[in-house]
């Protein structure tokens, strides 16, 4: 395990060394979870950015050009039929 050292800026910012970013697959948008114990030991956990469950799917046209209407059961409504019939 290689030891890496970085400097804390006056605004409290730290740069993650490039080798660690590559090795741990840390990407923009990922988060770091910091924890310190009573002895002052610091641990950092990489929290990968998660995307929505359906982000990998492409939208699918359902046909008809969007002009049809359907009831709750999915049946196409007949515009010639009224509720009193």
UniProtKB/TrEMBL annotation:
Residues 6-52 form the SpoVT-AbrB domain. GO terms for molecular function: DNA binding. It comes from Halonotius pteroides. Residues 68-78 have a biased composition (Basic and acidic residues). Residues 60-85 are annotated as: Disordered. It comes from the Archaea. The keyword DNA-binding applies. This is AbrB/MazE/SpoVT family DNA-binding domain-containing protein. Keywords: DNA-binding. InterPro entries: SpoVT-AbrB_dom (IPR007159), SpoVT-AbrB_sf (IPR037914). Coiled coil: none annotated. NCBIfam families: lp_hng_hel_AbrB.
